[in-house]
Write a sequence for this structure.
């Protein structure tokens, strides 16, 4: 229906403002870095850990009504959390590739 489409577009616009994405991505990146540096967990499991953490943060943000996540439905808020966590994994991989490319040039 038109009302559902308007609500969906409103949620997309809210996601686009980055009010909830950036803080969750930063927290997820910090968790991923901490797990990598301190735990004896294989690297392949870190994206899953970070993804679950992002989901929890997104849903918590919905119920606590912070970061603009309270205005979204719970599924959208959870999706924002998961996508934010994967953005942190992507940034981490970019750092890794950039540093390995620079070391190969020497």
């Amino acid at each position: 229906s038109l009302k559902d489409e308007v609500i969906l577009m409103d949620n997309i616009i809210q996601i686009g403002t980055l009010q909830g994405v950036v803080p969750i991505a930063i927290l997820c990146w910090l968790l991923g870095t901490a797990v990598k540096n301190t735990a004896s967990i294989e690297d392949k499991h870190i994206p899953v850990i970070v993804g679950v953490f992002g989901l929890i943060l997104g849903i918590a943000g919905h119920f606590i009504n912070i970061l603009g996540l309270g205005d979204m439905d719970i599924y959208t808020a959870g999706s924002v959390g998961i996508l934010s966590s994967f953005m942190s994994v992507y940034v981490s991989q970019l750092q890794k590739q950039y540093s390995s490319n620079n070391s190969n040039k020497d």
About this structure: The helical segments are 2-16, 21-38, 46-64, 74-105. The chain has a mean pLDDT of 82. The chain has four helices and no strands.
